[in-house]
Write a structure and sequence with these properties.
The protein is of the alpha+beta class. Helix content is 49%, strand content 24%. Helix 2 runs antiparallel to helix 3 and helix 3 packs across helix 4. The model has no long low-confidence stretch (mean pLDDT 85).
Length: 147
């Protein structure tokens, strides 16, 4: 059995790396991907530098441990870049924005169209077509003032 591992050499690491990456497809979690990448790196290095199996295991351990901070940095950069500060806080994203009244504010209540949604607004009596600015948000209630 050990003769097979010695005779295959770098190919063992490449095969092992591809198996780990294939397992990542069936059990996603991004963990096996980095181990597979470490295995592929050991295989590629082993083609150039013919080292003992102990050195190859040590390289695999170093590459696998080094992959963790790389993975965290990439994951953090991805979440920071794609993060939406107003996710699940749609009304807070409207604060400070200006819109045109669809229906006049009469007795403190009117409507404004934002995108494909009609929102109820509260504020001083104002005719339809007036530009208003959202000055306060409370749940789904928007308070506006004429600009």
């Amino acid at each position: 059995m050990t003769d097979m591992f010695v005779s295959l050499g770098a190919w063992n690491w490449l095969i092992f790396g591809f198996i780990l990456m294939a397992l990542e497809v069936f059990a996603p979690g991004v963990f096996l991907f980095w181990l597979g990448l470490a295995s592929l790196l050991v295989g590629l290095v082993s083609f150039v530098v013919h080292s003992s199996w102990q050195a190859q295991l040590l390289m695999f351990a170093v590459f696998a441990v080094a992959a963790v901070p790389v993975w965290r940095r990439l994951a953090r950069a991805k979440t920071d870049a794609g993060a939406s500060p107003f996710l699940n806080k749609r009304t807070e994203a409207l604060l400070g924005r200006e819109f045109t009244l669809e229906k006049p504010i009469i007795d403190g209540s009117g409507t404004v169209r934002i995108g494909d949604t009609v929102w109820r607004v509260a504020g001083p009596d104002t005719p339809a077509g007036t530009r208003v600015k959202v000055v306060q948000v409370d749940g789904a209630n928007l308070t506006v003032a004429a600009t």
